[in-house]
Each structure stands twice: as C-alpha cells, then as structure tokens.
Design brief:
Length: 396
C-alpha cells in the first residue's frame, strides 16, 4: 500500500476543529472535493472535479480529493487533475486516479468531522477533519439529495442545494409541479411512472400517443431523474416511441415525455451572494447541426459552443434573470443553480429545468456565464465555499 496523504501532520494543532475568528478560520478550511459516483454521469463529474481542483485557491484552502467509484466505494484519489480529462472521446473514471484499495469513511457524529481511511487488515488511519464538502456529483446518488442527507447527518457543511431542493432539481416531474405552483411557465409534459409501465404498457403508450395527438410530434422522451442528456431521445413519430421509452428506462424507471417548445434555448446562472441570489448574464445554446438536439456528445465530446452573452434585448435579459432567481427561490435552492429556458416564438420564457450542480468543465456554461458577468472561475469557487461555510447544517 502506498503512503496516504496526511495534510494535517505539520503540527499537533493542525487537525483541531476549525475555530472561527475575526479574520475567518484559525487555520485554512479543509475542503473535501467529492466526485464520480454511481450514476451514468460519473465521467462528467470527474471532468468537473479536474477543473475545480485546478481553480481552487490552495493558499486559502486545504484540499482532500475523494472519488466515489461506479460501484459506490469512497476512494482516496490523487490530486492530479491532468489524469482526469477526456481522452480519445472517452470519459475518465475515479478508478484511474486512485492507487488505494481501501475506503474513505465520513463521520456519523456531528461533533466529529474527522475523515478516516480504512483498508482490510490495516489499522484505520485518520485523515484529519473536513470543514466543508464540495459535492461535484451529477445525477442520482449524489445530486438528488442522497449525499446531502448523509452530510446533514454528519453535520458537515456542503456547497449547493439542500436535501429537498436537490431532490426537486433532480426530478423533472416534481420540478415542473413546483414551478407551476409558483407561477412559472413550463412546457406541456406527461409522465410514465414505473407502476404505469409495469402494469399496462399499452395503456401507458396510448396516453403518450394521445399527448402527441394534442401537442404534436416530435416528442422528447427523458429519464425523469437524470442529466447531461443521457437517455434522452427525440421521437418523430409513433414508430420510435417504444425504443425511446426503453432507452430512458435504462437510466431511470420513471420517464418524462415533453412536447417540443419552438424557440431559442436560453440559460442563466444564479449564484448566492452575501445579500442573496443574483443572476448572471444569460447564454444562448444555438441550434446544433450535427446532432438531433443538444445531447451528451454535443455538450461534452464535440464541444458545442454556447453564445455568451445571449443576443437578447435589455428587457429580455432582465426578464430571464428575474425568472432564474425566481426558480432558485421556488425550489429553495442554495449556493448555485443553472436555469434553462426556452424563449418561445410568442416571446414568453418557458422554464425547462434547473440544475442544482451544473458542470464546471472548461466548456460548461455556468462558469462561462459568470466569467462574462465579472466573476472569474477562482472567485466563483471561493464564493461557493464561503457561502457553504456561512450556513449551518440541519433545519434552516
């Protein structure tokens, strides 16, 4: 077994709990960057983590990279972002940046934030206390409230949305229900729940066909709880419906079917400042020509470029910024959100979804929008960590 890092071995006081002082912490706050995970967005999370590890201010924070493998093991990983890049159109994995067979264990006692490394046949090794977690997981088992619940039980502050808002941001059905209740416009949709499909596929399919008869083709068939466009199909007619549902259910047994909203795709970032959430300049995702829609390959492999800032009128820019903050507030979000809209042909902004942990890859729209708004990448990371350190865990 290789030697394990011990960032707090410099002095006996280094592993003491972070004590706030008039200038902040008595020592550098310790940030655990958690990435990877069990979802189909594992590789996107690894690429996101690489970008953040390059940007985080090492003079201000101690950093502990922790990767979650595809099987769910929490692994101690190398702090080497160059090993976490897309290569030959292949996404990276946590496994390629860990040299250890053991597991990292978070505390379950809110009075103790010490992280422990365990390996079969060896004495557990304390890795020091963690002051805040930056959870860079995308999709289920990380972005959906599950990891946030674990961190709440552990009493460890973390960047981003809490349990409820993370769950809302992951489930496209309930996200739309929440937005509708707050007066935000959403596009037409229907849902195929697991029991619907398992009990009577014919009836579920007929319901989708009736939806198509009302709203027209094409339809977009999506996993209800997923991101990065995995499992999404554009369906131009009844003959492609079964295959699209099967593909979506490969990622999630619950499926959302959406009608096409004709218009422009507009995105806007929201960031929590000391005085509350603010919106970035918006961006536009132009129509993609080599792909049926803005799918995974267009986003991450072929690097389709968004236009920042979006060519909108001042009135449209102000409107979409207001709506992005309204979506942030409606879902009780914290830290950050990327809000995705359609600017419909009638001039109305229709919200498509929010992303409570948007990508931080070099081509990701969220950091690009904030850079254009005057917040550079390192400051963006710093503001998110500082916002998390200001919040307590538990009910708030």
């Amino acid at each position: 077994m290789t030697n394990l890092p011990s960032p707090h071995s410099q002095s006996p006081d280094a592993a003491a709990p972070a004590a706030p002082s008039s200038g902040g912490y008595a020592r550098k706050p310790r940030v655990a960057v958690v990435f990877g995970g069990r979802s189909s967005e594992h590789g996107v999370s690894v690429v996101t983590a690489a970008s953040l590890l390059r940007a985080i201010d090492r003079s201000k924070y101690d950093v502990l990279p922790i990767g979650i493998t595809g099987e769910g093991r929490w692994a101690l990983t190398a702090d080497e972002p160059d090993r976490m890049a897309i290569a030959d159109r292949t996404m990276p994995t946590v496994e390629q940046v860990t040299d250890h067979e053991g597991a990292v264990v978070l505390p379950v006692d809110p009075a103790n934030r010490e992280v422990v490394y365990t390996e079969a046949g060896a004495v557990p090794k304390a890795l020091g206390e963690v002051d805040v977690v930056f959870p860079l997981l995308h999709g289920p088992y990380g972005e959906d409230g599950t990891l946030q619940g674990l961190l709440e039980l552990s009493g460890v502050p973390y960047v981003g949305a809490g349990v409820l808002s993370s769950a809302i941001g992951m489930d496209k059905e309930y996200m739309k229900r929440i937005f509708t209740s707050f007066g935000l416009a959403v596009g037409p949709y229907t849902v195929i729940r697991p029991r619907d499909w398992e009990r009577d596929r014919g009836a579920a399919r007929d319901r989708v066909l009736a939806f198509a008869a009302e709203h027209g083709w094409p339809l977009f068939v999506k996993p209800a709880r997923g991101g990065s466009s995995f499992g999404i199909s554009k369906v131009d007619g009844p003959e492609g419906l079964d295959a699209a549902i099967a593909e979506a259910r490969r990622h999630d047994p619950k499926v959302v079917v959406e009608a096409l909203v004709r218009g422009r795709e507009i995105e806007c970032g929201v960031l929590e400042f000391e005085d509350g959430p603010r919106a970035s300049v918006p961006a536009e995702i132009p129509p993609v020509t080599e792909h049926a829609f803005y799918d995974f390959e267009a986003k991450y492999i072929d690097s389709a470029e968004g236009v920042v800032p979006a060519p909108l009128t001042p009135e449209q820019t102000a409107q979409v910024q207001r709506l992005a903050v309204a979506a942030f507030e409606a879902a009780s979000c914290e830290g950050l959100v990327r809000a995705d809209f359609f600017l419909a042909e009638d001039g109305e902004f229709v919200i498509n979804e929010i992303n409570t942990m948007p990508g931080f890859t070099p081509i990701s729209m969220y950091p690009r929008m904030w850079q254009e708004s005057g917040v550079e990448y390192p400051e963006l990371v710093d503001r998110l960590i500082e916002a998390a350190l200001r919040r307590s865990t538990g009910l708030r």
